[in-house]
Amino acid sequence: MKIVITGASGFVGRHVVPRLQTAGIDPVLIGRDPEKLAQLFPGLSCCAPDAMAQHATGADLMVHLAARNNDRPGPQAEFDAVNVDLALTQLRAAQEAGIARFVYVSSIDALDASNRSPYAESKRRGAEAVLAAAGDTEVSILYLPAVQADRFAGKLAVLNKLPRVLRGPAFHTLAALRPTVSVDKIAAHLVSGAPAGEDNRLILTEAQRGNRVYGATMRLVDYAFALTILLGFWWVLLAAWIAVRRDSPGPGLFGQPRVGRHGKVFTCWKFRTMQLGTAQAGTHEVSAASVTRVGAFLRRTKIDELPQVWNILRGEIALIGPRPCLPVQTELVEERRKRGVLDVLPGISGLAQVEGIDMSDPVRLARRDADYVALRGILPDIRLILRTARGGGQGDRVRGQTGSA
Length: 405
Prior knowledge:
Radius of gyration: 25 Å
Distance between the termini: 53 Å
Number of helices: 15
CATH architecture of the largest domain: 3-Layer(aba) Sandwich
Strand content: 5-15%
Structural class: alpha/beta
CATH superfamily of the largest domain: NAD(P)-binding Rossmann-like Domain
Number of domains: 2
CATH topology of the largest domain: Rossmann fold
Helix content: 40-55%
Oligomer: single chain
Low-confidence stretches: 399-405
Strand order of the largest sheet: 3-2-1-4-5-6-9
Order of helices and strands: EHEHEHEHEHEEHEHEHHEEHHEHEHHH
């Protein structure tokens, strides 16, 4: 496998290139200062952009790491010159050299549409530009969070000042707040030759796997929420149960099988919001006429979800996570399984739900659920809790309704 890399003198490149060499790949390095590259990486082929054709012909992949980062301020034009214009120049050079695949390395900051910084804006424009100019080249956008290596840079640079014995615990604490990725994972992805992801993009993170700080913190939040509801708002639960019983025939609580972590089915508890005898189906498949008068209020205020505190205490569900589906929703179950969504606890509310994506579109929902898994952290989860509390995540729309119910 032959890989061409631009921007190898940056933090990510300096740590990824040696790992590629360990994997048996000697990448071709492109930069404005080939002599500096040769000093950093002795023995590797290093050249200026105008000599790329003779060095890179026949390569399988070009990885565009060169970037104007957000470590120093500057006007939008300066960021666009590197993150947009240079990226397009390198893509055209790759096309002229017959390189079949081109990876534009971006940042998860660019995924946040509310982030209007020159850096995030330029990265969004760069991704759009290279995708539009792809032609027959397989172009993909690789979104990275803060990168973990032997040393740290960017938002994690403060860890370099700590004694080595404290860096590990401190890193896991900071990594629990927001997503991170290791240079080992980046190198492994490039070596794997994996094709472009859906929509020609891939969010590459550690997804908090193995981070005990994140796991313990969010379970504490879950249990605190459950106990607060049970001890402080038991009267709301009692009032809702009485209202449901008086409004229509049937029980006050409604237990429904749902698909949980690792595909294990559990009973999810809610206040009954539909007429007794309503078919077991996805909410979007149920007629609006099936929702009771009190049920409509409970669903609108999310009070119908409160009995799930019992599921939280049993460890079957979390406050935030992908919304659990029915076992009969086999397409959604399979789409989630192949994207690793079933590896995490489902949630009472989640990213897709607050964005109004319901189970009527299984592929779109599973893809957004996978985004949540990749981007989760204590701070993103807390933001989702606040968005839910402010009225986001009204739940799946029942058939025949134009708004959430």
